[in-house]
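Amino acid chain
________________
===
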Amino acid sequence: MLRCAALGLALLLGSAAVTAQVPRHFPSNALRGELSGVAPPDVLVDGKPARLAPGARVRNEENRFEVMSRLAGRTLLVHYTIGSGGLLQDIWILRPDEIARQPWPRTPEQAAEWRFDASAQSWSRP
């Protein structure tokens, strides 16, 4: 019985490590920015005041939902989307492999001019 439990734990831990390495797919409207948690829902994005939408979703490096209060006092490189009201809707804290994907638009204007390949999760400039 103890051996079976140990095997189950090893499988669980192994699957958690694999899950952390699964590539994430970001939508074409996701912008890259430096997010600084001031006092959530108030944050700074690239040094400019911004606000998290009610029901905003923050995902950590392992793609698990993060408690918004844990953003306070941290500065993170993220991908984010802006909802129809101009508030931050979805935020993904980036892993080193995701940060390495260059270029990635930082403004809606860049996103409108560049081309996005959703399957490769890459942007190309004109």
Summary: The chain has three helices and seven strands. The two ends are 61 Å apart (CA to CA). Residues 82 and 88 are 5 Å apart (CA to CA). Strands lie at 31-39, 42-45, 48-59, 75-82, 88-93, 115-117, 122-124.
